[in-house]
């Protein structure tokens, strides 16, 4: 699946920071071979699995060292629509200090358990923020301003695993950060496995 995502991203003429979060040696070597001649891809590696939030932070720190102003977060399993990246970036250019998040449009392939899980999370976010302004906190398809997002990690504790997506939006709300949303279609791969835990990650 990751090779298909890379192929779609290639046409956007954007640099890619790919973080391998402690996958098996065979999987890592497979990805290495896939990107070895791709100068536009920077492959970063965790020796052990540290979680989605930790992988994002590793990529974010690299982006900061490389003087990037913004990063696009996208999952490697193909659930996000790469064709919407230019639209996300257009909103980010209009509001460079805002976090721009996909607002998911789900099809009939959405598992019922995930629907109810998202509903529970959304209710908890309303309680944590005391507002309805965070319209969605779980879509991992976003544009982040690099400096602003680094400052959120410096100021607040933000979970290192699957809780990251939601926690960073809550902390952004607390800090007064503008959050914009773009409707985008999300699909669930038939073989996809969610590592979101409805208790630990809420």
UniProtKB/TrEMBL annotation:
Residues annotated as signal peptide: none
The Glycosyltransferase 2-like domain, residue ranges: 4-126
GO biological process: protein N-linked glycosylation
CDD domains named among the record's database cross-references: DPM_DPG-synthase_like (cd04179)
UniProt cross-references to SUPFAM superfamilies, sorted A to Z: Nucleotide-diphospho-sugar transferases
PANTHER family: DOLICHYL-PHOSPHATE BETA-GLUCOSYLTRANSFERASE, GLYCOSYL TRANSFERASE
Name of the protein: Glycosyltransferase 2-like domain-containing protein
Organism in which the protein naturally occurs: marine metagenome
Lineage: unclassified sequences, metagenomes, ecological metagenomes
């Amino acid at each position: 699946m990751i090779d298909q995502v890379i192929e779609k991203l290639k046409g956007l003429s954007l640099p890619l920071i790919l973080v391998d979060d402690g996958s098996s040696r065979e999987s890592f070597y497979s990805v290495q071979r896939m990107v070895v001649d791709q100068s536009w891809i920077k492959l970063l590696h965790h020796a052990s699995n540290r979680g989605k939030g930790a992988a994002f932070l590793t990529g974010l720190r690299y982006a900061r060292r490389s003087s990037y102003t913004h990063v696009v977060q996208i999952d490697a399993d193909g659930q996000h629509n790469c064709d919407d990246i230019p639209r996300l970036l257009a909103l980010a250019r209009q509001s460079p200090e805002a976090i721009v998040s996909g607002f998911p449009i789900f099809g009939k392939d959405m598992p019922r358990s995930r629907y109810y899980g998202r509903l529970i999370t959304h209710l908890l976010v309303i309680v944590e923020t005391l507002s309805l302004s965070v319209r969605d906190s779980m879509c991992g398809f976003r544009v982040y301003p690099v400096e602003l997002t680094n400052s959120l990690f410096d100021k607040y504790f933000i979970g290192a695993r699957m809780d990251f997506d939601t926690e960073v939006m809550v902390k952004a709300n607390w800090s007064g950060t503008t959050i914009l949303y773009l409707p985008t279609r999300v699909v669930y791969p038939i073989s996809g496995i969610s590592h979101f835990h409805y208790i630990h990650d809420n």
